[in-house]
């Protein structure tokens, strides 16, 4: 995994001046001399968002740069990380922020610079930007690096194809994280899932070349119980209800929930926050494949909780493996139980790839999550556990239906299905993420994406107070 990094404090740096756009021209900082201001005007520098103007000294050498942050506005900007483009376009070297305009969110901007350093280079050489920023002394350098490292981990896991990121490799990644932070790590694999009462995880994953497994990490700490459950479907063919080729193309990312909870756990552990909570991470790791022993449409599965489930579509497998893992988590009655999954296309139809919905019954918890997401450039949007739709997940011959017909409210009915397995947890929230950046943007290259991690990270203190 590439490591995000700041400029060395002992190294010489060049100044980067941030300039807002105004009707009468760029708001040049007071530290800019007349020659630099004249040069900027001659270059047509206006302070538009992402606009760069390199400044020469009297000898023609590089003396610094002006960077536009766009007009003053209280509304969210189109670019999530305003300094990410600077990191990608500035010449190699060490830079420092020479000024901070009023109202400028330095933490998000600097985090964007770090995230712009990411490149997935496992299979093909990819040059990362070589401009490094000196972390402003007003910011927590360790916190910023921890958030970037967690994001890099999630991106790497999602970007790796199933040929190198099957259930076994996902187990290795989780085991490495556990060893790195002194967490207990237990794995239940193959037929042992039946013996230990995880029948739906076994049913979904038994047809694959690699056996299904449940990964269980417990981090050392005291305090409220916080359990994260991430969907780890390392590849989803759709099973016997096989997907068409176009729908299968991105299914290496169907373990995006697992990648994101591991990235979040990395953040929490790196920041020492796991000392004050009892953090547990559960990941059902499977591949939904086709073989003679694949589970079938029409099968009735009995879950760990004892609820029976009619399989009306084998391509709605994520909620099945999550249900057994949630039932296990719920047995400890955690103070906060969170599931993260690339679960439904309906969520993307409703809110698009960039804004994942979440479901939560508690207004305090939901408010904390949504505020933290907006404040820390990791937006999430609350959707309802709509009680009248409960009948849609209740078939005639079993307790639950994994894929109700009709095509309506698919994200809500999936969330309602999962909630049936969380009757003891004090608070439950479910995130239906996309886990993928479909088009490149500053700080967010096309490929695997972290979603909801920083929203949860920053909301936790308020939720658990």
TrEMBL record:
Single GO MF descriptor: metalloaminopeptidase activity
PROSITE patterns reported for this sequence: CYTOSOL_AP (PS00631)
Keyword Protease: yes
A Gene Ontology biological process term: proteolysis
Segments forming domain Cytosol aminopeptidase: 313-320
Swiss-Prot/TrEMBL keywords: Aminopeptidase, Hydrolase, Manganese, Protease
One Pfam family in the UniProt entry: Peptidase_M17
GO cellular component: cytoplasm
CDD domains: Peptidase_M17
Family the entry assigns: Belongs to the peptidase M17 family.
PANTHER family: LEUCINE AMINOPEPTIDASE-RELATED (PTHR11963), PEPTIDASE B (PTHR11963:SF20)
Protein name: Cytochrome C oxidase subunit II
Taxonomic lineage of the native organism: Bacteria, Pseudomonadati, Pseudomonadota, Alphaproteobacteria, Rhodobacterales
